[in-house]
């Protein structure tokens, strides 16, 4: 029997995959033309999460969008999945790259989620409630990385530097960040401010 297809709202313009044997994680992330990012389990073809900018979230929720929005305000242009499969970075035209902790989307039960996050039930419920209220997705926002122009791409280093997410933007900069805290590890600026799209 053929596996069900991956269904999106518009044509896919960018995608990335990640297989992590140690975590038993096999994922596919797709950025669509309308600016949303879909995260799928490659093993089951099940949708794990959808990351949409505010204008699309408002229209899809028919006015019931989160009261305090902390997600993207512009279309997502690119994405990357960390080496261990537990983080997703989304680069956007709103001049930010947002780093998402995917733990709540990957666990199969609340006790498993609490154990993976290292928190008790009260803190877990607070974190999930904040996520639902603040950006309409069960993934937890770890950090928001700011540029002065649209962020064209995001990628993760691997091995000993797996904590590093690298973003490239239209302001001519390429910046390495500590994904968990949003601290800058390095910055490269192209003379003349050329649009950097990929590293």
Notes on the protein architecture:
With 199 residues, the protein is an alpha+beta fold. It is built from four helices and twelve strands. The strands form three sheets. Strands 1-2-3-4 form a four-stranded antiparallel beta sheet, with no helix packed on it. Strands 5-6-7-8 form a four-stranded antiparallel beta sheet. Strand 11 and strand 12 (184-189) form a beta hairpin. The radius of gyration is 17 Å and the shape is globular. The mean pLDDT is 84.
What fraction strand?
Answer: 35-45%
Radius of gyration: 17 Å
Average pLDDT, rounded to a whole number, is 84
- The total strand number stands at 12
Give me the side-by-side strand order of the main sheet: 1-2-3-4
Q: What coarse outline follows from CA principal-axis ratios? A: globular
Q: H/E series, N to C?
A: EEEEHEEEHHHEEEEE
Which structural category fits the helices and strands?
alpha+beta
Low-confidence stretches: none
**Oligomer category:** single chain
Helix content: 10-25%
Major sheet size, sense and barrel closure: 4 strands, antiparallel
Write the layout of secondary structure elements.
Elements: E1 12-20, E2 25-32, E3 37-41, E4 47-51, H1 54-61, E5 76-81, E6 87-92, E7 96-101, H2 103-106, H3 110-117, H4 121-135, E8 140-146, E9 151-156, E10 164-169, E11 173-178, E12 184-189
Describe the structure concisely:
The chain is α+β, with helices and mostly antiparallel strands.
Which short descriptors sum up this protein?
199 residues, alpha+beta, 4-stranded antiparallel beta sheet, globular
């Amino acid at each position: 029997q053929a596996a069900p297809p991956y269904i999106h709202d518009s044509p896919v313009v960018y995608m990335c995959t990640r297989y992590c044997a140690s975590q038993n994680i096999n994922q596919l992330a797709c950025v669509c033309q309308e600016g949303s990012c879909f995260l799928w389990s490659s093993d089951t073809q099940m949708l794990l999460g959808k990351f949409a900018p505010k204008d699309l979230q408002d229209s899809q929720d028919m006015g019931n969008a989160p009261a305090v929005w902390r997600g993207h305000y512009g279309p997502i242009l690119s994405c990357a999945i960390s080496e261990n499969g537990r983080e997703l970075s989304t680069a956007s035209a709103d001049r930010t790259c947002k780093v998402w902790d995917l733990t709540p989307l990957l666990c199969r039960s609340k006790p498993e989620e609490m154990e993976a996050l290292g928190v008790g039930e009260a803190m877990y419920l607070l974190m999930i409630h904040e996520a639902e209220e603040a950006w309409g997705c069960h993934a937890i926002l770890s950090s928001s990385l700011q540029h002065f122009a649209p962020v064209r791409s995001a990628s993760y280093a691997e091995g000993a530097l797996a904590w590093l997410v690298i973003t490239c933007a239209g302001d001519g900069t390429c910046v390495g960040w500590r994904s968990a805290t949003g601290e800058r590890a390095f910055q490269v600026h192209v003379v003349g401010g050329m649009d950097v799209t990929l590293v």
